Amino acid sequence: MPDMTQHQRLLIIDFGSQVTQLIARRLRELNIYCEIHPYQNVSPAFLTDFAPQAVILSGGPDSVTREGSTRAPENLWTMGVPVFGICYGQQVMMQQLGGNVEAGHHAEYGRAYVTPAPGHKKDGIFAGLSDREQVWMSHGDRVTQLAPGFEVVGTSPNAPYAITADEGRGFYAVQFHPEVHHTPNGKQMLENFTRMAGFTGDWTMAAYKDEAIRKIREQVGDKKVICGLSGGVDSSVAAVLIHEAIGDQLTCVFVDHGLLRQNEAEEVVSMFRDNYNIPLIHADEADLFIGALEGVSDPEVKRKTIGKLFIDVFQKYANEIEGAEFLAQGTLYPDVIESVSFSGGPSVTIKSHHNVGGLPEKMGLKLVEPLRELFKDEVRALGRELGLPDKFIGRHPFPGPGLAIRCPGEITRDKLDILRKADAVFIDQIRQHGLYDEIWQAFVAILPVRTVGVMGDGRTYDYACALRAVTSVDGMTADYYPFSHDFLGETATRIINEVKGINRVTYDITSKPPGTIEWE
Prior knowledge:
Helix content: 25-40%
CATH architecture of the largest domain: 3-Layer(aba) Sandwich
Structural class: alpha/beta
Oligomer: single chain
Number of helices: 15
């Protein structure tokens, strides 16, 4: 993990808000290095060792009026660093510094409008903002008396203490959530705070790349590293970064389960073996996987079969690499954050499905995770910094089980071949119309339904397929993409004409929720 002590660092103390990650994302967009740590892990000693240049206190579900409710470490207030409290963070600040918070009868959820308090100019937190800013409220308690040294900077009709500040000590607090999309200029407020805290924005992907390379060399020394390569963006960026650090000490194992898209295996092998000259084992085990899946229709059995075989195959090929002591993984920062339990202890455990099936323990390998401090968009930026082609960096997500979960019902080789061809036509259409980068994910699912059709003078009895395309920010929620009827008609015609075995095309207009993005 790169050593970030040479950067200006901001600490986010997380009190359990559902949107704390958004604070970090906004700050990273401002080129500010920050880390999220749950409140129970932030002891006075931790705070001193971390030595942040500023601290942000997140929102949270607790009430400061409850006996034993969560608090910030007492030494936070005497360290001489600026602090910004958000919602519950504001209430913690007031309660600990001598103000008052009352519970109940003050709930406010949804849009509100904040204006500067009388006598306050549009500077400080309000710099660059209008006289009436939309914000998003979500709180049950509220401040009823300010702590000594604080004054009101901004108000809303239902929140007389919407923005408060003790500018002498660099303490600021807001009752609303500036990090969410519904506070349109919230990022500007966070930027104003960090500017007042002396941040210059020294966190760049170029700097991260150099530090990560140095750290990988320190960690690995002259030992060998195995990287499980899926062909996805995360594992690919991790592989290229590690190769830049240690060269031929890295071997990639690409498990080809025969469930990839058209020409995908060839593209992955060509890019890594030929373009980057990275030692690569192409484990072509398509017959093994498809043989085990043929006739299987239960989605969970499909996933488990693929998962078990993947571990067996990976281990078989990895055992051929003598002297390997490390396993590289493309673990990202959201995986690290989500793995922390707020009721549990301080240990951080990556969710099991982000490990390669528990292989590190099974094979006695140590982990190398050079992306574990990055969000997805930062991984893409790092990939560009490493020279990976844009077409590859911007690829849509692709599930680990591959086409198996886009083939509801029984899996057969014939259906997989039909699906591959139909998917290729759909993606080609999207690219030709310049829509690929507007869409989060697009694919075809082949349905376990045969329908009657008429082609030429003959009757057909072939498969129906469903086109699926969604827009999303993070894959947690998604909306179907609003293609024009002309586009859909043209695409359906091409698939039916070019793909033998399909005679009917539908478009899936289900959002997530209630549906999922994938069909299985």
